Amino acid sequence: MGTSLLARKLGMAQVFSEDGRCYGVTVLEAGPCPVVQVKSLAVDGYDGVQVGFGANPKKINSPSRGHFDAAGVEPHRYLRELPGSSDAAVGDTLTVSAFEVGQKVDVSGVSKGKGFAGQHKRHNFGRGPVTHGSHNIRQAGSVGSVDAARTFKGLPMAGHMGAKRSTVQRLEIFRVDEERNLLLVKGAVPGATGGLLMVSQSRPRIRKVRGQH
Predict the structure, then answer these.
(1) In the chain, what are the domains?
(2) pLDDT tens across 33-55, in order?
(3) pTM for this one?
(4) Burial class (CB in 10 A: 0-12, 13-18, 19+), 9
(5) How many beta carbons lie within 10 A of that of residue 41, not counting itself?
(6) 24 to each of 13, 101, 107, how far by Cα in Å?
(7) Residues near 161 by Cβ (< 8 Å), separated by ≥ 6?
């Protein structure tokens, strides 16, 4: 399993490098994440590590409390699984020390919800002719087929925009603050301030050579 950690988005800031360049970074509170359960291929059918994040929750139900007590871990607000095999054991704690400056990471989360939007804003449609007498400047155009006599499923149309799981890949880590459990990554990440995120080590890109499949 690659290095992965749960994090909370604190906001964006501007920082300066040693050569005087200014970068826009996102500040993430990453971990600590205690290991609550370890999944194995032999027992569960797949490999994974279940971790907690956000200590001292205001409310927690009895089944969740019993699950944490069985692992000997303090209750946390979030409970998520990190895919892949790992050498971690129940009771271990994952921290930002697993990352290093200059490392490339993928950050996943739920994007901001933007409400109802038309097809131009939601799917980047082009517009109709802006001429005298034109009435289809921002219309969707034809949504049917000549012979099918119906609208195919999945056709890009107006609807709810955002609030979907999205991932920003290959963001560079600018700074690691182990004392305060902070990660500073260059660029923007999905979601609003305070949202839950998953930070994972980026996988190497596989470039296909022309003519090979």
Answers:
(1) 4-127+154-201 (2.40.30.10)
(2) 999 999 888 888 888 899 999 88
(3) 0.82
(4) buried
(5) 10
(6) 6, 16, 16
(7) 113, 114, 115, 116, 117, 121, 122
